[in-house]
Amino acid sequence: MLPVVFRDAFLEGVRKIDELIEHASIEGDVAKIDASRLNHKEVNDLMRECVLKGAKKLILKNVCGQRYIGTRLHLPEGKKVEIEIYGTPGNDLGAFLDGHRIVLHGNAQDGVGNTMNDGEIVVEGRAGDVVAMAMRGGKIFIRDDVGYRTAIHMKQYMDKIPVLVVGGTSQDFLGEYMAGGMVILLGLTLEKLKHRAYYIGTGMHGGVIYLRGEVEKYQLGKEVGVVDMEEEDWKTLEKHVGEFSSYFGYDADEILAEKFMKLLPLTKRPYGRIYTY
Amino acid sequence: MKFKTHLLPEFIVKRDEDRCTRCKVCVKQCPFGVHSYDEENDRIISREELCVGCQRCVVYCPENALIVEPYPGGYRPNEYWTGEYIRDIKKQSESGGVILTSTGAQRRLKIYWDHILLNASQVTNPSIDPLREPMELRTFLGRKPDALEIEYEGEDVKIKTELYPNLLIETPILFAGMSYGAISYNAFKSLAMAAKEFGTLFNTGEGGLPREMREEFKDCTIVQCASGRFGVDPEYLNSAAAIEIKIGQGAKPGIGGHLPGEKVSADISATRMIPEGTDALSPAPHHDIYSIEDLSMLIYALKEATNYEKPVCVKIAAVHNVAAIASGIVRAGADIVAIDGFRGGTGATPKIMREHVGIPVELALAAVDQRLREERIRHKCSIIVGGGIRCAADVAKAVALGADAVYIGTAALIALGCTMCQRCHTGKCAWGICTQDPKLSKRLNPKVGAQRLVNLLRGWSLELKDVLGGMGINAIESLRGNRDHLRGVGLEEWELEVLGIKGAGE
Ligand code: SF4
Ligand code: SF4
Predict the structure, then answer these.
(1) What range does the domain containing A198 cover?
(2) Residue A155 falls within a domain, yes or no?
């Protein structure tokens, strides 16, 4: 028999809410939480408690590695709140986010906006891998670069169209399997405006990617094509780049003065013809 | 290039001309266009090469005039180059494609259920008569505490330990994940209604849960979160009794899914939240899960999204090393591990995956249960097994091998009318099950379907009680992992060892 070794690192040592409440202070409808001595679940327990107590805005200080910030706020009456974060949150920031607004004064780790449903995430820094994975609605603005596997299987339905704006560039597998939504990559961190990601849009069958600057044909998946920018596209870009610029102090006109590439899937049905009955 | 097909028909249609009244029922019933009425000669003719052997016309012919049977002709008998291999090669030489099929693996391979026999009491401990004595089939699914602390309050006993969320089911049988999209709305609804009536659960598969069903069925629904994340939003997750992360499926381990665009109708698109007519592609892996660590992250993301109110299940296909994988899954925080065996069915899969990938669920189950016991974490999760459970005896054997409950998919569809014609992927199911064609799906009335399913659950549950009584056991709990009640016949030493059972006579 092996010795019993079972650790539930995630739940271990989680304290009860009445022991945690001292880490929060609520004034009016603003709650301040000091996250420095709290683990993943405790932060979210406390956030939920504060919101249930009436807070409409949460300010989180000293965040360091805590995951799922914002995920536990699927609230019965559909209440929406604003979350301001100082520090570096852990993975899955705003996963399954349900309409809240998150502003992060710092960098984010992996999984920002994973399967996010609605709301907004603004990151004043960079973000790790799998940003906006399976995102279904809402907006994400990342000031600098993002990692690998960005916007995989993003999707859309009717007028629910998710938007991801990345100020810098992305690593490989951007927009893989993308089924809807919009990704805008501005390349502001690049010296020469040449994106380095490979496998862009492999298996893409919906949505659109706008790239400021250039990519070579061999960097694209074989399911995407480059099409000309039209009037409508510029209008769309103006709107989202405008918003991006207002958050991070850029000049939108300057950004939009560069060349943009528009990538679209070649078909809604990339794998329709490989089967026999 | 167009070819003259070299394929032989798979079925022949025999019509008794004396009985046939030319009522044309078969013409209307067949979705594959086999029968047609020849006005000139006033007779019904059949194009047998189109027939898939679904038996719809046979059942609905009011005069019993039809027999549909396997094509008696064929190639020179050859044990090696069987008709099936020859047929598949010809098919591919004409199309150049991957052979697509549906349902579960059909190839000849030892069926372990059939080599395992159940025990009964004789003399030394009395059997129990289930007709007179209470028999407990009730099952709780989810993580159990390491120890239970209780408190006495006068006459009352209270549990002091904080318990994990568990699911209560009245019989250890649940309906396996089958998506709205793969199956029709009426089939989907039948499963939901039956689960609700009988006190068990149905599973949405990965196609989402239609909004109008959420309130009514929230206590008997397991919602799936698969690699395509179709229809997955916080409301969906919160409108269920439990959440299942689907990693793999017995019928197609290691590959993704693909609901062709033509099946993505307006209703399906609303439930999956993707535009009409696009292919619904589920990637092979979840692209946010490349390790047990990552899996753990999604498990807790789902728990966070549902306020830790629901157990999270992780479903995998039975593959090599399944025991080690299951251990990792439990350690990652899953409350339930579902194992889908080699025989598990599907609405569409490449034949090569269905027939050649994965391992029999009996061996996988025994290995997983054993491993979790050895690691002393068996109580941290419940085990559900599925993949070809055909009868109550299979259920009893699965429980004795260590399962807490079983998933039934194929058996449930057979109860609804399915005849295992293996044409689900064509979307033309004559029985209104695997189709989105409104003319076909209305053949299945959810009320009637639910009743058939409830009857099946009732019949199997009664049989389970009989078997338990015969063993002198009065609760399914006491059979769980009780391999002493199993004996093997016709099994090799290594097989007995993996199964953890003795040979018959020992
Ligand atoms: S396909 Fe079905 S309904 Fe059509 S002829 Fe064959 S058995 Fe009858
Ligand atoms: S569900 Fe329908 S199409 Fe699929 S095997 Fe059964 S009868 Fe055939």
Answers:
(1) 4-270
(2) yes
- Topology of domain B139-143+171-503 in CATH is TIM Barrel (3.20.20)
| CA nearest to B363, candidates B104, B172, B113, B173 | B113
Give the minimum alpha-carbon distance from B445 to chain A in angstroms, rounded to a whole number: 29
Q: Which residue in chain A has the smallest CA separation from B89?
A: A276
| Confidence check: pLDDT of B104 > 70 | yes
CB atoms under 10 Å from CB of B435, counted, come to: 26
Residue with tokens 């059939």: B114
CA distance B92 to chain A (A): 7
Atom 2, ligand 2: residue with shortest CA distance: B429
Instruction: State the pairing for strand pair A118-123/A98-105.
Output: parallel
CATH of B11-97, one of 1.20.120.450, 3.30.70.20, 3.20.20.70, 3.40.50.1000: 3.30.70.20
Note the pTM of the prediction, 2 decimals. 0.94
User: Please, what is the average pLDDT of chain A?
Assistant: 93
Instruction: Report the DSSP pairing between strands B150-153 and B156-159.
Output: antiparallel
pLDDT, residue B265, reads 84
Closest Cα in chain B to A155: B274
Of B233, B278, B375, the CB nearest to A206: B278
B109-123 mean pLDDT: 95
> pLDDT at position A271, please?
67
> A105: domain CATH number?
2.160.20.60
Which is nearest to A188 in space by CA: A94, A256, A114, A86?
A256
List, for chain A, all residue ranges whose pLDDT scores fall below the cut of 50: none
pLDDT for B448 beyond 80:
yes
Q: Is residue A137 part of a domain?
A: yes
What residues in A contact B3, CB-CB < 8 Å? none
- Kindly tell me if the per-residue pLDDT of B287 is higher than 70: yes
Going by CA atoms, what residue is nearest to atom 8 of ligand 2?
B421
pLDDT at A109: 97
Inter-chain Cβ pairs, chain A and chain B, closer than 8 A: 160
In ligand 2, the atom with minimum distance to the C-alpha of B422 is 5
CA angle B112, B115, B117 (to 5 degrees): 120
Q: Which of B238, B270, B301 faces A95 most closely, judged by CB atoms?
A: B301
A277 falls within a domain: no
Number of domains in chain A: 1
Alpha carbon of B28: minimum distance to chain A alpha carbons (Å): 23
Closest residue in B to A159 (Cα–Cα): B275
**Distance (Å, rounded) from C-alpha A240 to C-alpha A237?**
5
Residues 25-64 of A with CB under 8 A from B: 40-41, 44, 48
Mean of the per-residue pLDDT values for chain B? Answer: 94
Q: Where do the domains of chain B lie? A: 11-97, 139-143+171-503
A118 lies in a domain?
yes
